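user: can you give me the structure for this one chain? tokens are fine.
assistant: on it. calling the predictor now.
[tool input]
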Amino acid sequence: MRIKFVLIFVLCSTLLLLSSCSKDKSKEGAEQAKESEVPFFYSVADIVINPAGTNAQRVMLVSLALQLKSDEDVKKIGEREALVKDVIVTSLSSKSIENLTAMGYKDSLKVELKTKLNAKLHGLNIKDIYFTKYIIQ
């Protein structure tokens, strides 16, 4: 009787150990899959803007990288580059120097640009926006 109890205990312990190992491996596999995803970017380089209220006495130079979900989306957005640049120029040129130089304003500007671009680019979804240049003279 005691041997049966020990055998059952050993078998149950082994099954629990094996099931927890397989869960850990599936979690590791999911984490590795996320890490191995390569982000796709479309670069918009060197847009020169006259900020609002400067009477063309001040300029802003900005470059952006738009993060997309696939290489196919990068190609599609390249076909609509004029629309992308127009949204960026229109949005940024409506901002004052005070806004553009304020601490933390870049983050809200990224959200605004992302929202406007996603609204204009039907069928494409910009995941994130990164400023690669942000110069005001």
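assistant: here you go. The first strand starts at residue 40 and ends at 49. Strands lie at 40-49, 60-68, 128-136.
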